[in-house]
Inverse folding.
C-alpha cells in the first residue's frame, strides 16, 4: 500500500466532529494542526479551539480510532498541542457554511461583526459574551427576533 | 537571551525553580478561582448568566490544567496530583481568590455576594493578563506560547467582568453602594495578589519573566484607570496573608478537602 498523503489523512478526519458542534468536522474547524509521517509512524497534532474545551480527550480518541482503522499497520500518535494558538480564522469556508446551517453565526473579525444565521440581518445585539460553550457568545436578532449563538473571534 | 525549550530550562536548576514558582502561582490561582466560580452554578443572578459564569469557571480550570501540564513536563509531578493532592501550605494562590463567595455554603443556605465575586474576578483577570503579557518577553518558548493562547480567552473574562461593573456603577443607590463596598472589601485582601514570592529576582536574572515590576505597574495603572471611569474610589490595599509564600486561610483548606474528596478515592482513575 502507498503511503497516505496529508490530503488522505485530512479526508479521513472529515468524519470526526467536535461533539459540541456535530455538523462541522474538526478539519473544517481548523483543529488539525500538523500531520507528520516517517516510515510507518504517523503523528497528528490537534489544536483545541479553547484551552479548556472539555471534549479534547474524546476527540483525541476518535481521531486515533479513525486513523487506526483506515491505516492498519501504522503507529499512530495523536496529541492536543496546547501551546500553539488556534484562531477563528482557521475555520474553512465550508466550516462557516456548516456553522450557519446549524444556527451558529460564524466568527467575524470583531464581536460587532456578526450576522444572524437565520435571516442574515446584521441588526443584532450582544446579550452575553458567554453562551452554552466557551467558544460562543449569545446574541439577539432584532430583525427576526430570534436569539442565536455566534462563534467568538479569537 | 537564547530561547529555551522545556528540556533546556530543566538543565538550569535555579531557572527551573523560578519558572516552577511562577507556574504554581498561575495554576493555583486559576484552579481555586474556577472552583469558586463553579460554586455559583444554579445561583447566578439570571439563567443566561448562570451559563456564562459556568463557562468562565470551566475555562479557569482548563487554564490551570495547562499550567499544571507544564509543571509536569518540568518534573514537578503528575499534573492531576499537583491540582488535587497538594495541601494548603504548598499552594501558591493569592489569598484573595480562596475567600468564599459570601456567607453560607453552596449546599447549605448560600448568601453569595455577586458584586464581591465580580470585582474579585476582575482583579484576578487583570493580574493574570498582566502576567501573561509579561511572559511574552520570556525566553522559555512553551511558556511564551501558552501565554499567547490563554491571553485571547482571558480578555473575554475581563470584558465580562467590566460589563457587570459598568452596569452596577450606572445605577445610583444600592447598586453603586454594593459595587463600592465590594471594591473596598477586595482591597482588604488583595495585597498578595501582585506579589511574586521568593522568585522575583530569579525570574529577571534567568529571563523567564524579564520585567515583574513593569507587570505590577501595568496592573495598578489599569485598575486605577477603570475605577476612575466608574467613579469608584481606589481602595487601600492590605495584605493580611501572603499566599505566594504558602500562607493561607481556613477557607482554602475547606475548599481543597471538598475538591479532592472524589479524587482521593482513586488517584489513578481516568476521569
Ligand atoms: Zn435574524
Amino acid at each position: 500500500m502507498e503511503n497516505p498523503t496529508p490530503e488522505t489523512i485530512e479526508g479521513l478526519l472529515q468524519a470526526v466532529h467536535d461533539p459540541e458542534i456535530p455538523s462541522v468536522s474538526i478539519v473544517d474547524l481548523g483543529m488539525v494542526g500538523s500531520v507528520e509521517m516517517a516510515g510507518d509512524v504517523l503523528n497528528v497534532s490537534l489544536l483545541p479551539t479553547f484551552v479548556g474545551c472539555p471534549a479534547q480527550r474524546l476527540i483525541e480518541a476518535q481521531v486515533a480510532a479513525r486513523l487506526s482503522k483506515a491505516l492498519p499497520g501504522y503507529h499512530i500518535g495523536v496529541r492536543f498541542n496546547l501551546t500553539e494558538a488556534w484562531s477563528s480564522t482557521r475555520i474553512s469556508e465550508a466550516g462557516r457554511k456548516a456553522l450557519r446551517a446549524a444556527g451558529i453565526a460564524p466568527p467575524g473579525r470583531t464581536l460587532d461583526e456578526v450576522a444572524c444565521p437565520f435571516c442574515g440581518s446584521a441588526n443584532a445585539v450582544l446579550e452575553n459574551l458567554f453562551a452554552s460553550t466557551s467558544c460562543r457568545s449569545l446574541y439577539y436578532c432584532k430583525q427576526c427576533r430570534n436569539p442565536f449563538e455566534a462563534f467568538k473571534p479569537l | 537571551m537564547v530561547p529555551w525549550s522545556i528540556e533546556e530550562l530543566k538543565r538550569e536548576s535555579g531557572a527551573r525553580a523560578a519558572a516552577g514558582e511562577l507556574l504554581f502561582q498561575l495554576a493555583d490561582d486559576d484552579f481555586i478561582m474556577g472552583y469558586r466560580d463553579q460554586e455559583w452554578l444554579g445561583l447566578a443572578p439570571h439563567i443566561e448568566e448562570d451559563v456564562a459564569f459556568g463557562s468562565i469557571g470551566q475555562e479557569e480550570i482548563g487554564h490551570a490544567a495547562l499550567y499544571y501540564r507544564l509543571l509536569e513536563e518540568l518534573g514537578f509531578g503528575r499534573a492531576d496530583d499537583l491540582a488535587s493532592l497538594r495541601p494548603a501550605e504548598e499552594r501558591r494562590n493569592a489569598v484573595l481568590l480562596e475567600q468564599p463567595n459570601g456567607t453560607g455554603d453552596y449546599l447549605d443556605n448560600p448568601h453569595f455576594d455577586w458584586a464581591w465575586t465580580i470585582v474579585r474576578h476582575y482583579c484576578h483577570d487583570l493580574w493574570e493578563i498582566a502576567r501573561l503579557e509579561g511572559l511574552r518577553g520570556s525566553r522559555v518558548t512553551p511558556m511564551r506560547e501558552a501565554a499567547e493562547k490563554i491571553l485571547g480567552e482571558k480578555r473575554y473574562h475581563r470584558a465580562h467582568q467590566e460589563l457587570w461593573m459598568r452596569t452596577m456603577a450606572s445605577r445610583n443607590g444600592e447598586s453603586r453602594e454594593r459595587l463600592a463596598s465590594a471594591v473596598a472589601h477586595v482591597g482588604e485582601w488583595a495585597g498578595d495578589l501582585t506579589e511574586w514570592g521568593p522568585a522575583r529576582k530569579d525570574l529577571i536574572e534567568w529571563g523567564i519573566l524579564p520585567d515583574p515590576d513593569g507587570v505590577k505597574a501595568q496592573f495598578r495603572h489599569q485598575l486605577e484607570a477603570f475605577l476612575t471611569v466608574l467613579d469608584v474610589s481606589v481602595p487601600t490595599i492590605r495584605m493580611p496573608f501572603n499566599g505566594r509564600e504558602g500562607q493561607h486561610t481556613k477557607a482554602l483548606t475547606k475548599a481543597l478537602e471538598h475538591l479532592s474528596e472524589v479524587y482521593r478515592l482513586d488517584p489513578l482513575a481516568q476521569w
User: Anything to note?
Assistant: Residues 104-151 of chain A form one domain. The two ends of chain A are 41 Å apart (CA to CA). The first helix of chain A runs from residue 6 to 13. Chain A has two domains: 6-88, 104-151.
